[in-house]
Amino acid sequence: MLAVVHIHKTAGTTLAGVLKHANGGTHCDVLAEDAAAPYFSAADLRRLRRWYPRLRSILGHDVRVYSDLETEVPDVHWVAFLREPLTRTASHYQYDVQRGGVDLPFEEWITHDAVRDRQTRILAGPGGTAEEAIALLGRFAFVGLTERFDESLVMLGRRAGIRDLRYAKKWVAPHDDIKQRLLSDPPTREMLVAVNREDLAVYEHVRREVYPKQQAEYGITLDTDVAWFRRHNQETTQRRMYASLRYAAYVAKWRWGYHPWVERRRRRAAAVPS
After folding, report:
1. Residues 68, 42 contacting (CB under 8 angstroms)
2. Is the dihedral of CA 37, 30, 120, 176 positive or negative?
3. What is the CATH number of the domain that holds 42?
């Protein structure tokens, strides 16, 4: 089973579309049943399998490598995609403004604790350090780079045995003006650096050590295979993705079964006095 750690603004939604199309009703975008829980747990997984007895892949913001999932699935294959930290953080702010209804100025938004070293803390926990995150990356079957998404997807496809790879981007920013302004302005760029020091160390380790090793393991056909994939994927649209039987099976099971069920359990968990 693939367990994808979905880090915000690293193309995780697009990757979810790939898995929905490839695995259909055997994939699930998961949520911890208790919204206050630190991660999607082995107990959550056991109950999830009532809905998905042939589960092949899960993905979600609540999926964590430091969880207890391996007590339920000892051979789980962990996957994550990382993104250059300054760009990821600037993109996150842009998304919050354009889609999230956030009206905070960047100088205030970036002071919030949840912004700091987001990738490191999702990999290694709320108090995680770059050293701890790098150690945990050794447990991952694959680590992709958002900046090399097509190449990463091709390598993941072979590693995970995903034969029908294709995607259509789920959401594209109406414009990148906010992100580009933050990255190009020296004072705001320095703010981005200040809150991403651990993330920068983790990303540099993956870029220099982990990713080149995965490229070498794939072999000399990688460039050719990526070029073939891009030609094959060129005409893929969201309409064609949604029209596939596998994708429809995913939507039916998740939207009308699993998601309403887990939301009810979340409401009950929230109603229980602490």
Report:
1. yes
2. negative
3. 3.40.50
Q: Give per-residue burial for 172-199: e unless 16+ CB within 10 Å, then b.
A: eeeeeebbeebbeeeebeebbeebbebb
The separation between the first and the last C-alpha atoms of the chain, rounded to the nearest angstrom, is 34
- Please state the domain count of the chain: 1
Residue 146, domain extent: 2-271
**Of 57, 55, 72, 73, nearest to 6 (Cα)?**
57
The C-alpha atoms of residue 212 and residue 257 are separated, in whole angstroms, by 41
Sheet of 27-29: strands edge to edge? 27-29, 57-60, 2-5, 77-82, 140-145
Q: 21 is written with which tokens?
A: 């199309």
Neighbours of 268 (CB within 10 A): 11
- Give me 58's structure tokens: 């899960």
Q: What is the pLDDT of residues 208-267, one digit of tens each?
A: 999 999 999 999 999 999 999 999 999 888 888 888 999 999 999 999 999 999 999 999
